[in-house]
C-alpha cells in the first residue's frame, strides 16, 4: 500500500510499483497507523464501556484489520485496478458491519477516503468518497437518533479535505515528473552536445592538419623533386653527383607518398575511399526514395580537403531535404570543374516552395530550420556563392560555387607540367 498518488490507469504503471520517496513512505506509514489506531480505539472503547455488542465490535475490528493487512501485502491490489476495487468493496462491507454495531466505526471513513481516491480512477474515487460519507452520516444518525449539523459536516468536510489533498498531491506529482523528464532531457542534450562538439573539434583538427600537410609539406616535396630532376638533367651523364641526386629524389618521392597517405588518412570517412566524385556517386546510389543521378562535367582534379568536405556535406544535406520534404520522383547532382572554380548543383522535381515567403533556411530544411543556413555558411566560409531557386510545383535547385584558391591552382599547374621537358629546363 502506498501513499495517495495519481490514479491508476490500465495504460500506466501503478504508482505502487514505482520507487517510493521518503515522503511517500511516511504518508504510507501514517495511513496504516491511522486506520489501525482507529480500529484499536473502537475496540478499546467497546471493551471499556462494556457495550452490549462489544464482542461483535471486536470481531468486526479484527476482520477489518485482517482484510486491510491482506490487501496491503497482496501485489495484485497494487498492480490491478480490478483487484484494488474488489479489495475496497471487501473493506467497505466489513466497515458497514462495524458501523452497524458501533458508532465509533464512523471514524474509519477518513482513511477509507484516501484509499478510495488512491486505488480508483478519479471520478470513481470521488463517487466512492461520496457514498462512504453518506454511509458515515447514516450510521451516526442511526446510533445517535438525532440529525445534527455536526453529523453532516464532519464526514462531508473530511471527504472534501481528502479529495483536495489527493488532487493537490497529484498536481505536485505531475510537476515533479515534468521536472524529472526535463532534467533527464537536459542531461541527454548536454551529453549529445558535448559529443557533437568533440566530434566537430576532431574533424576540424583533421581537416586543418590535412590542409597544412597538403599545402606545405607535400608541395615542398614536389618542388624538391622537380629541382632534383632539373639538376639531374643539367649534369653530365657520368657525373659522380648523379647517384646522390637519384637517392635524394627517391627519398623525396617516398616522403611525398607518405605525406599523401597521411593526408588521405585525415580526410573524413566518406572521402577515404576515393575522390569527391566517387563519394557523390556512392551517395546518390544509397539514397532511398527518389531516383538520383550523378553527373560529372569537366576534368576532375584533387581539391583541398575543406572544399571536398564542404561540397560533400552540402550534397548530403540537400538530398536529405529532397527525401524528407520534396516528394520528388527524380533528382540529379552535377559536379562541374572549371578553370578557377568548382560548382555543385542539386536539382529535384518535387513540389518546391516559395523562398520569398519563408525565412532563410526555414523551408525544406527538415532539421528545425538550419539546413539551408548551414549549407550557405559552409559555402561562404570558403568564399563561395550559395543560391536556392524554387517555385511551388516546379521543384528546387540548390547551387554552390567555390572559387579555387590561387596557391592550389599554381600547385595544380606545376603537377600538370612536372613531366614536361620544357618545364624542367625552365627550372
Automatic annotation (TrEMBL):
Transferase among keywords: yes
Gene3D superfamilies membership: 1.20.5.1930, Histidine kinase-like ATPase, C-terminal domain
Protein's name according to its UniProt entry: Oxygen sensor histidine kinase NreB
Catalytic activity reported: ATP + protein L-histidine = ADP + protein N-phospho-L-histidine
Domain Histidine kinase residues, every copy: 311-406
Class of the enzyme per the UniProt entry, highest EC level: transferase
Keyword vocabulary terms for this entry: 4Fe-4S, Cytoplasm, Iron, Iron-sulfur, Kinase, Membrane, Metal-binding, Transferase, Transmembrane, Transmembrane helix, Two-component regulatory system
Transmembrane segments: 26-44, 56-74, 86-110, 122-146, 152-172
Listed InterPro entries: HATPase_C_sf, HATPase_dom, His_kinase_dom, Sensor_HK_TwoCompSys, Sig_transdc_His_kin-like_C, Sig_transdc_His_kin_sub3_dim/P, Sig_transdc_His_kinase_ChrS
Coiled-coil features, chain-numbered ranges: none
Organism from which the protein derives: Streptomyces spororaveus
Amino acid at each position: 500500500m502506498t501513499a495517495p498518488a495519481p490514479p491508476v490507469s490500465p495504460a500506466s504503471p501503478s504508482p505502487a510499483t514505482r520507487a517510493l520517496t521518503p515522503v511517500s513512505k511516511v504518508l504510507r506509514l501514517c495511513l496504516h497507523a491511522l486506520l489501525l489506531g482507529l480500529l484499536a480505539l473502537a475496540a478499546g472503547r467497546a471493551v471499556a464501556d462494556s457495550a452490549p455488542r462489544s464482542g461483535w465490535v471486536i470481531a468486526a475490528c479484527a476482520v477489518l484489520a485482517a482484510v486491510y493487512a491482506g490487501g496491503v501485502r497482496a501485489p495484485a491490489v497494487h498492480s490491478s485496478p480490478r483487484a484494488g476495487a474488489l479489495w475496497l468493496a471487501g473493506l467497505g462491507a466489513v466497515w458497514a458491519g462495524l458501523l452497524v454495531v458501533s458508532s465509533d466505526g464512523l471514524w474509519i471513513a477518513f482513511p477509507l477516503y484516501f484509499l478510495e481516491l488512491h486505488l480508483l480512477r478519479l471520478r470513481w474515487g470521488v463517487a466512492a468518497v461520496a457514498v462512504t460519507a453518506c454511509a458515515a452520516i447514516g450510521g451516526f444518525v442511526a446510533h445517535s437518533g438525532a440529525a445534527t449539523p455536526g453529523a453532516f459536516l464532519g464526514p462531508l468536510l473530511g471527504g472534501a479535505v481528502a479529495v483536495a489533498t489527493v488532487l493537490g498531491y497529484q498536481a505536485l506529482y505531475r510537476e515533479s515528473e515534468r521536472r524529472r523528464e526535463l532534467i533527464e532531457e537536459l542531461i541527454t542534450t548536454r551529453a549529445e552536445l558535448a559529443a557533437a562538439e568533440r566530434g566537430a573539434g576532431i574533424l576540424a583538427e583533421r581537416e586543418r592538419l590535412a590542409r597544412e600537410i597538403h599545402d606545405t609539406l607535400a608541395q615542398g616535396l614536389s618542388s624538391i623533386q622537380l629541382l632534383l630532376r632539373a639538376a639531374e638533367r643539367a649534369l653530365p651523364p657520368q657525373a659522380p653527383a648523379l647517384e646522390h641526386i637519384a637517392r635524394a629524389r627517391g627519398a623525396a618521392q617516398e616522403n611525398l607518398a607518405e605525406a599523401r597517405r597521411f593526408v588521405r588518412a585525415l580526410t573524413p570517412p566518406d572521402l577515404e575511399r576515393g575522390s569527391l566524385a566517387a563519394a557523390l556517386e556512392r551517395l546518390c546510389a544509397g539514397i532511398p526514395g527518389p531516383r538520383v543521378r550523378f553527373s560529372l562535367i569537366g576534368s576532375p582534379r584533387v581539391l583541398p580537403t575543406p572544399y571536398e568536405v564542404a561540397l560533400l556535406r552540402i550534397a548530403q544535406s540537400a538530398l536529405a531535404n529532397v527525401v524528407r520534404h520534396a516528394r520528388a520522383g527524380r533528382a540529379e547532382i552535377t559536379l562541374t570543374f572549371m578553370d578557377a572554380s568548382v560548382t555543385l548543383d542539386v536539382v529535384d522535381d518535387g513540389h518546391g516552395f516559395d523562398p520569398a515567403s519563408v525565412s532563410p533556411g526555414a523551408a525544406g530544411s527538415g532539421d528545425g530550420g538550419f539546413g539551408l543556413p548551414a549549407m550557405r555558411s559552409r559555402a561562404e566560409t570558403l568564399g563561395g556563392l550559395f543560391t536556392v531557386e524554387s517555385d511551388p510545383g516546379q521543384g528546387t535547385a540548390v547551387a554552390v560555387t567555390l572559387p579555387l584558391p590561387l596557391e592550389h591552382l599554381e600547385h595544380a599547374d606545376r603537377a600538370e607540367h612536372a613531366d614536361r621537358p620544357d618545364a624542367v629546363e625552365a627550372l
